[in-house]
Amino acid sequence: MDNHSYNFPSDCTPLTNCKSARKPAGSTVVNMGNSGKNPPRDYLIWSLCNTLYVNFCCLGFMALIYSIKARDQKTQGNLQLAQECSDKAKWYNILAAGWNLLIPLLAIVLLVLLLVHLGSSKGSFDFFGEDGFQNFMKLFSW
């Protein structure tokens, strides 16, 4: 093909500004249908933290699953199902966070109670004495 086979208007040649041959660009308006409500939260970071820390009875993992479902539904535009999954993720996160705080607190309380009991038992438990380890092992013998 040679250049003579193309027909250009006289004022419009390649690599020049050709305003007369151009059509004005139109605009497209897309209505997203935002009703003024905020989209539901997905609690993904909180779920991830609960999954990685302690994760008692897989509550953090369940929260992570519902968080991902809430994010997916929000992306697809199904805000009602996204809100339901968000609520479930929130409650699983609350339960997981409660257990994550309760287990270390119970361990500390049990350790303190053990030390108080050992200190008040007859003979006063001596950690650093000669018979300290033997006295400690007697507590666990039947």
General description of the model:
This protein has 142 residues and is mostly helical. The protein is 54% helix and 0% strand. The chain contains four helices and no strands. The chain has helices at 44-52, 59-76, 79-120, 132-138. α1 (44-52) packs parallel to α3 (79-120) and α2 (59-76) packs antiparallel against α3 (79-120). The longest helix has 42 residues, at 79-120. The radius of gyration is 35 Å and the shape is elongated. The termini are far apart. The mean pLDDT is 79.
Question: Which range best describes the helical content: under 10%, 10-25%, 25-40%, 40-55%, 55-70% or over 70%?
Answer: 40-55%
Q: What's the SSE pattern?
A: HHHH
What class would the helix/strand composition place it in?
mainly alpha
What's the average pLDDT? Answer: 79
Total count of helical runs of at least 4 residues: 4
Strand content: under 5%
Overall body shape:
elongated
Number of strands: 0
Stretches where pLDDT is under 50 for at least 5 consecutive residues are: none
Give the radius of gyration.
35 Å
Straight-line distance between termini: 103 Å
The biggest beta sheet is recorded as:
none
